[in-house]
Amino acid sequence: MRIAISTGGGDAPGLNAVIRAATLSALSRGWSVLGIKRGYYGLLGEDEVVPLTAEAVRGIAHQGGTILRTTNRGNPFDFPVQRPDGSWASIDRSDEMIENARNLGIQAMISIGGDGSLAIAQKLVDKGMRIVGVPKTIDNDVSGTIATFGFDTAVQTAIEAIDKLQTTAESHDRVLVLEVMGREAGFIALHAGLSGSADVILIPEIPWRLDQVCEAVMERDRSGRKFAIVVVAEGAIDEHGETSLIGESLPGQAPRIGGIAHRLAKSIQQRTGKECRALVLGHLQRGGMPTGYDRFLATRFGAAATQAVAEGKWGHMVALQSPHIVTVPIREVLRAPKRVDPTHDAVLTARACGISFGD
Ligand code: F6P
Q: Are 72 and 8 within 8 A, CB to CB?
């Protein structure tokens, strides 16, 4: 048996732990393992395909990033190509990719990625490829699994930022607005904001109003607490009903979300007269060593993916449904993305602790 492993989409702490566990558990079955570099680029002649041996995956479980590298532009069904006049078009290179995989003797693939990569995996399965998915994203927005690896590390990084902002905010009587990642999901903001004792948490799933945010800040001010921490998810819809986007994305890339913290800080300062500062935490949330939780989950996912290949569970994704790792059909996972439930106990707990959601 020869299998291949690919990592696609934005990186997440824990990817290397999945690669290591999937590789070692495949090798121990007597299989051979190939690593496809940069998503599927390695199968399109745009990058390499490398052997994954025990030596190649030694000592990587604690490292952030991915030894296979990754891209969020490598969709073989929608591959960006530049025309001679400089404009961009996209072409379907999936048949070429499948043919190249066949020529390399690849009999099955483990695709590690978020919703975008899983959607590509499903389309390849529909064309006859034998693929098992592993859910990866710091955003935690993949359905069918209680958690994705990378999320816990991102939350930890955001909590550390809040802890540090608390002391400087208090020293200056300032409002500090921290923007965290998550695209259209508010999990990072909710978990970090609640754990870091933020005063206001704004998430895409709960529409908020500026006057409510300012009221929460001023109520705190009147009670003698002259500083405040506002944690805002990058995808939170602003007071004009819009998602804040950062400039142009490259061809083949999803629109880049971000920038709401600066606008919000400016608006709060104008309305309340309080001095405000903004911080966009950005890609710090994706970097660094995975936490113990993420390493543990990623390692379990890696071995479970190999097991799913052995059982021929094509078109399935490994998932955490505590306390077990299970497999679920990718098609079902893709039906709806996972979002924060506004009635979830974490939201109710935050409210009970006096945290405002600006609603
Ligand atoms: O999906 C993971 C994520 O980190 C999002 O939270 C964020 O919006 C996006 O990726 C950033 O992507 P890029 O690496 O292209 O800037």
A: yes
